[in-house]
Each structure stands twice: as structure tokens, then as C-alpha cells.
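Lab notebook page, bench 4
Experiment: in silico fold of construct C2
Operator: M.H.
Input chain length: 198 residues
Purpose: comparison with the prior construct
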Amino acid sequence: MDTAPTRKQLTHDRIVDTAARVLRETGFHGVGVADIMKRAGLTHGGFYAHFPSREVLLAEALERAGQDSRLRLERSIAAREAKGASRLRALLESYLSEAHLKAVDSGCPVAALASEMPRQGEAVREAGQVRVESLLAAVAAALPPGHPEGSAGIVAAQMVGALQIARALGDNASGRRQLAAARQFLLEQFESPRPAGR
């Protein structure tokens, strides 16, 4: 039997949710304990009742951001597959979409934070590695059979890079063209199964 979450658990979750959103908006350097607590509607002094350190909060926030992003992506993929899209097309159209271009504070944490992950503490680096592995697994599951080993990494890197470049260009015609070109290229290269021996 499930029990209702305690007030402490609800507060903990509110802090993590707030930090996950701010983390994607501002990067790791923008996640200050005082600011997160204020945004969560709590006092700074209550932080250490929930987390032993800022790094633990960052690791949990990164995990939460990844879980939220994965669930959103899975729903979008399922909706596109229900309309007849292949798994790969559904993934690419969901990830490299105008909605994801705009969703900096709720989108993929790998695209938002990958360049900063190696400079973080061990717990955050480990949480980041899990997020990257989850993205690679999603791409591998979407690829048609017969593609060479390592193809999932190539596709994931192009997806993440295309989204980062599109966001750098802005939520405008240039950014949208970047996403469309990346979708088209990846579909042309990877949507069809590869015959054995190629």
C-alpha cells in the first residue's frame, strides 16, 4: 500500500523541482542555495534539513531534470508513433522540435548542460553520465536494425549538437532551419535498416 508523502518529502521534492528548472535555465553556476530556496518559497536556513551539500542537490536536480525530460519525450514519441511515424522519426521530430527549441528550462539536460558536466564534482558527473547513457539507450532503441555499433552515439551527438546550435541561433527562423536540416539529414542517413554486411 502506498503511503502519502510526508510534508518533508513534499518540501524536498519542491526544492529539487525548482533546482532542476533553474539548472537548465542557468547552468550549474546559476544554482545557488539561497536563490533556489527563495524560488521554492522557503527560507535559506532550511536547506541543510534536506541536503548535506549543494553538490547533492545538483545531482538530484540533474536526475529529476532527466526523468522529467525523458517522460515528456516518451509521450511525444508515443503520440507520433500512434499517427504512423517510425520510432526514429518520432524521436527526431520530438527532440528536434520547435517546442524543444523553446523549452530551455524543461528540456533535455544533456543539451543544456553537457559542456559543464566534466567540471562538476563526482556525484554530479555520475548523474550526468546516467543522463547521457539514458539518451544513448533511447536512440539505440529507435534505430532500425543493421546500423554499425556506435551509431546511437553519432545520432545522439548530432541531436544534442543541433539543438544547442539552434538555441544559440534563437527561437527564430534560423534556429528552426537548423533543426529541420538536422532532422532531414539524420532520417536520410539512419531511418532505413542497413542490409547485413554493409
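Observations: The chain has a mean pLDDT of 93. The longest helix spans residues 54-82.
Next step: discuss at group meeting.
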